[in-house]
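Thread title: Can someone regenerate the structure for this chain?

I was given the following input by a collaborator and told the matching structure tokens would be attached. They weren't. Posting the sequence so someone can regenerate them.
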Amino acid sequence: MGTMIKLIGQDYKANKTVTIVLLVFLFLSSLLLACGLRVGGTMASSSNGLNDLAQPPDYLQMHKGDFDPAPLNEFVDGQEEIQEVQVVKARNISNVNIRYRGDTLESFLMDNGFVTQNQEFDFLLDMENKVASVREGEIGVPVYYAEELGIQVGETITIEDGGYQKSLTVSTLIRDAAMNAALTSSKRFLVSGPDLDELSRHTGEWEYSIEFLWGEGTDTAVLEK
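Best answer:
Regenerated them for you:
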């Protein structure tokens, strides 16, 4: 050990500048590694907390067109591994029919579904991580659009299609455990039941999200097949 210290001392005296530069780089590398681990830990903790509250589905299947619940119920009854199932109706509305501050959302390559709050699981949360709710005439906007466009509570989102027009007031921003990420191609807007019924009579098309919660240890690949 003494010999090692002596050699390091001799090397330092012979190459002071190089040694100091190496020490600085080692310190910065350690600092960046520590910061990265902290950020990663914070993100993992935040994601786990969001999932615990929102209870996103373990598996979901999207479906457009006519929907007959009978085959689904028959399938679920025969699978003990399935703990819960729910079918979420979303009214898909084209980006060109959604306006904010006079401009449409057609520059965003997103599928936008207008939904009501779920009752069993896969809850849409507000910015305080509480299950979000909206009243008639209000809308909850995905946090993705709030960040991209600067949408704030109190502003207006307008739905237009032909001669139909409906304005909704932004009452909350939505955190969506299933579709929060920018890379996810679908986003969900939260509206009231009466408003969703009205929108469905004038614009868009229905899409169904068939969502499952599995029991512990379930082989997802088998049930998916």
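Residues 59-217 form one domain.
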